[in-house]
Amino acid sequence: MQTDEVLREFLTESRENLDLLDRDLLALEKGHVSKEGIAGIFRTIHTIKGTSGFFDFKRLTALTHAGESLLAQLREGRLAVSPEIASALLTLVDKVREIVATIDRSGHEPTDDYRDLIDRLDALRTGPTPVRAAPAIASPTPLTLTPLAPRMEVPSPFADGTIRVDVGLLDRLMNLVGELVLARNQILQYTLDRKDTAFQSTTQRLNLITTELQEGVMKTRMQPISTIWNKYPRVVRDLALATEKQVDLELRGQETELDKSIIEAIRDPLSHIVRNAIDHGLERPAARTLSGKPARGMIVMRAFHEGGQVNIEIADDGAGIDPERIRSKAIERGLVNRETAARLSEKEILEFLFQPGFSTAATVTDLSGRGVGMDVVRTNVERIAGTVDLHTRLGKGTTIRIKIPLTLAIIPTLLVSCGGHRFAIPQANLLEVVREEKHREPVEMRGPDGASGILTRRACRTCDPRPIVEYIHDVPVYRLRGALLPLVFLHQQLGVDPRPGPEDEENLYIVVLQADDRSFGLVVDSIRDTEEIVVKPLGKLLRGIPIYAGATILGDGKVALILDIPGLARESNVLSASRERAIAERNEKAIENANPPQTLLLVGVGERRMAIPLSAVARLEEIAPGAVELAAGREVVQYRKTILPLIRLDEMFPGRHPVAPRDGGLLQVVVWSGEGRVAGLVVDRIVDIVESAIDIQDHRPLPGLLGTTVIQSRVTDLMDVPEVIRLAAPWLPLAAGRV
Amino acid sequence: MTTTTTRQLCTFMLDDLYLGLEVKRVQEVLRWQEMTFVPLAADVIRGLINLRGQIVTAIDLRRRFGLPDLPPDRRSMNVVVRADDGPVSLLVDDIGDVMMVEDRWFERPPETVRGLTRELIRGTYKLKHRLLLELDIARVIDLSIRQEARP
Predict the structure, then answer these.
(1) Which of residues 239-298 of A touch B (CB under 8 A)?
(2) What angle do CA A287, A291, A292 make, to 5 degrees?
(3) Mean pLDDT of A674-691
(4) Is residue B86 part of a domain?
(5) Residue A387 sits in which domain range?
(6) Residue A310: CATH number of its domain
(7) Cα gap A149→A147, rounded to integer Å
(8) What is residue A703's DSSP assignment?
(9) What residues does A514 pair with on adjacent strands?
(10) Which of A542, A563, A586 is the last residue of a domain?
(11) What angle do CA A12, A234, A303 make, to 5 degrees?
């Protein structure tokens, strides 16, 4: 019905506008008075008053009228802002919010007539306060809120440049895009077999369009985290007042974007964590001063993207959590007996906080500590495939870290084989991929528990007689750059026999994974490809198996299971603290082959990520295709008084998927200078420059590559540029020119 | 004159069992599909199939009823049913015709039907020459309903 629609609009907009008001009013309260600020507040109240009259919401009209009159005086400078006025306006906003919520729920206004508040507002308006200088800012507190932004236009559904869309519709679009990605993968599979160029170029177009469409649709669902964070300055202020504490709030990374469904899912967990921090974490000002801390407590909320995940941190500088109190509480509750409790590490003790109903708060306050606790937070976060971590230092404070995958539906993965079956490993958990060559004479090794380790004798480069897989207290480990990495044999976890293909029998493949901030190695039969896949949930029948996160359909139409890496770590017990201790006892932290970090240039060649040591890169250039000339049948370009030979890397390293047609865009060229030669390497895009310590394993998976590693959660090929030039342009004379 | 209600059942064969399911509950019937094996899953789950982009779990009905597997030269057929949680595929030996059955032929499982089979069917229809067992889909999919080990 028409009126219903309009009413709904009114309620939604009012809510949004009131949230914006909070921020401005808090600034006002702190003494940051500005004309635009007051004018903006006036406008919002005025708008609400007008529309409430249209709907005949008498109480709302009366209340906002009182507020508007007060604001009019402020706006015209006839009245000065005082803390009492700011406080009254904040209460006004709260009451208006209340009324809006009641209307939303029941369609009617509440029965309260808000007489007290109206009287208070009127009194302030007509009160004796003459115009006086704005109150001096009491203490030089750092501006803890975002700087007062230039007043934004109140958004309406018809404002230029934006449009309101039903979230359900966006969900449907996401699903369709997911299906399109699968279909594209299958079509690309077919093009590999067929040499029909017309078909191939059409498919390339389809590929590009699908990728862009996917990115575009995902963007529509992205919202900045400020959507939920905007409320926190107000929440923190109210909580601080209620608990008689002084709290400063710092928000960093407000523009970090998240998928809308993620925002909804973490709204409550974040709220709970903040309340906890103020209620239990931060001490009262007196106690803080006594321990040498500033009287004002600090909460820092930080959001950023890293490694394909959104990281949200909430840190307070309060009292921290006492592991001993938790230990005794756990014993008291019967969750663990005294002897076992004594042996638990601090990290394991903190895990008890995530048990349902566990609360060490001495007094259960209204705000938190009622046992609706960290267990609910963790459940909610894990429901969206995220993780929650807690770090604390007694007397110093506590930090809670939430990590959530950026998109739920489409993720990059690495495909591996085990027992003749294919599995997908999310690249978000992936650190590195290691291949070791087994010796020609395999020697079977058995650990004390009968588990068979894989074969021994490293290739004799170093004449190192140590077996590749060692056992420490029956824990299989692998020595990775001096540190010991606990191993899990995937075939053992799955209960299948290993079945490496003929070309993989000589190799040991270890996928280095990360779960819960710790790494371990997963031994598989072979490594296949990387593929972007659509995650599909498993049905009820299979949901209970902890090592699977879902399933997907690969490019060839077959179904593959997606491994749940934290689940796998838990099931195999590879990261239990006792194992860690065993390894730590024998861990030589001295890294034998100390590899200093190198600065690398990351580029994209087709679907590949490749890395070039930056030291030899002279320049990055963009060259118009028209500038490319042929000299003796080879592509060159005139460059800064010399002739620069060009090497097309997409031809040297063809990808699985055909690359974009060269349609006249500028060529990205990496000008490389070394060994007396100069060449221009043509790539598809420049990605980044990173510093990374990498162990370049000299096993040359392809000519022109030094090896493969993982950088920024993507499988990256390390280029051996001199070799590439030798292979691609053997005619290049030495000392061809200097740039 | 008494009115009789008739229903339509999809029928299929499993060893010498003649089974049926209400047509409404059957989404489609397919020949043998490539399945992806799921290690660690219950034995009765043969694998996952790709049904036009949807991933469907396949339950081997022979194993579910405790019957021996088909000989390797024979391939099962897929009966895709609509369960609460989404489609599930049942692997059967053969597909039969759609039968019209009358209510008055229906009986709760008779004494002759025992053990696990009894648990998994709603009842039987006495046809002219044979007995048609109607499957209880919810119970078939509820894998906690199992043959109790004999003492």
Answers:
(1) none
(2) 115
(3) 84
(4) yes
(5) 224-321+360-405
(6) 3.30.565.10
(7) 6
(8) T
(9) A519
(10) A586
(11) 85
Burial class (CB in 10 A: 0-12, 13-18, 19+), A92: buried
**pLDDT above 70 coverage of chain B, percent:** 95
What stretches of A147-228 adopt beta strand conformation (E)?
A: 222-224
Structural domain containing residue B114: 6-138
CB-side neighbour CA atoms (13 Å) of A267: 12
The helix (run of H) or strand (run of E) holding residue B15 is: none
Residues A140 and A84 sit within 8 Å (Cβ to Cβ):
no
Which residues in A lie closer than 8 A to residue B38 (C-beta atoms)? 542, 545, 548, 561
> Whats the size of chain B, residue-wise?
151
Concatenate the DSSP letters of all residues of B56-124 into one string.
Answer: EEEEEHHHHTTPPPPPTT---EEEEEEETTEEEEEEESEEEEEEEEEGGGEESPPTTS-HHHHHHEEEE
| A429: DSSP letter | G
Tokens of A19: 């949230």
Model confidence pLDDT, tens digit, residues A636-650: 898 887 888 899 888
> Do A232 and A369 fall into the same domain?
yes
Neighbours of A155 (CB within 10 A): 14
Q: Which of A541, A556, A563 to mutate to test the interface with B (most CBs of B within 10 A)?
A: A541
Residue A137 in any domain: the answer is: no
Is the pTM of the predicted complex or chain greater than 0.80? Answer: no
Residues from chain A contacting residue B56 (CB–CB below 8 Å):
539
Say which residue the tokens 């007008």 belong to.
Answer: A50
Q: Give residue A148's pLDDT.
A: 47
The predicted pLDDT at position A30 comes to: 78
Poorest-pLDDT segment among A351-365, A593-607, A621-635: A351-365
CB atoms A421 and B36 under 8 Å: yes
Residue whose token pair is 């007509």: A126
Give the span between the Cα atoms of A579 and A567, in whole angstroms. 17
Question: Which pair of tokens denotes residue A637?
Answer: 């370009």
Question: Residue A245's closest CA among A298, A292, A301, A314?
Answer: A298
Q: How confident is the model at residue A128 (pLDDT cuts 50, 70, 90)?
A: low
CA distance A236 to chain B (A): 42
Rounded Cα distance between A451 and A525, Å, is 17
CA dihedral A520, A524, A530, A535 (to 10 degrees): -80
Q: How much is the pLDDT for A1? A: 45
Q: Tell me what ipTM this predicted complex has.
A: 0.90
The separation between the first and the last C-alpha atoms of chain B, rounded to the nearest angstrom, is: 51
CA distance A327 to A457: 46
The confidence band for A660, taking pLDDT boundaries of 50, 70 and 90, is: low
Does residue A544 sit at the B interface (CB-CB below 8 Å)? no
Tell me if residue B34 falls in helix, strand or coil: coil
Distance from CA of B121 to the nearest CA of A (A): 20
Q: What angle do CA A14, A15, A20 make, to 5 degrees?
A: 95
Please say whether the beta carbons of A705 and A721 come within 8 A: no
Report if residue A493 sits inside a domain. Answer: yes
Going A76 to A79 to A80 to A85, the CA torsion angle's sign is negative
Report yes or no on A149 lying in a domain.
no
DSSP A427: G
Residue-wise pLDDT tens digits, A352-376 = 888 766 665 544 444 444 435 787 7
**Rounded Cα distance, A247 and A142, in Å:** 12
Closest CA to A352 of A372, A376, A395, A323: A323
